[in-house]
Amino acid sequence: xxLQNSELPSFENEVIQTDSENTILRSNLKNxxxxxxxxxxYGRNTNTKWNLRHSNPxxxxxxxxxxxxxxxxxxxxxxxxxxxxxxxxxxxCAATI
Length: 97
What we know:
About 15% of the residues lie in helices and about 25% in strands. It has about 100 residues and is of the alpha+beta class. It has a domain at about 5-45. A hairpin with an 8-residue loop joins strand 3 and strand 4. The mean pLDDT is about 75.
C-alpha cells in the first residue's frame, strides 16, 4: 500500500523511493522529541499505534536510531496457535518505521 502525502506528519518530508511494499522518506527531525512527535502525528493520521522495539540514543554515525513496530506485530506476543483467551493482538503485522 503506497503512502499518501496526507498521511505524513507536518514536518518537511521528502519521498526518496517507493514501491508496492516500502516507502523510504527523509524528514527534518533534529532531536528525539521531533522523532516522538513525528511518530505520534503519523499514528493519529493513519489510525495506527507504534511500539519502540530498538533504540540507540547516542550513536556514532547517526544522532539516534529508533525502530518502531506496529502494535499488531508478533514481537513479544503469544503465537496465534497458543492464544487461548482470544485477546492477543498478534496479527503478524510486518510494518516498521
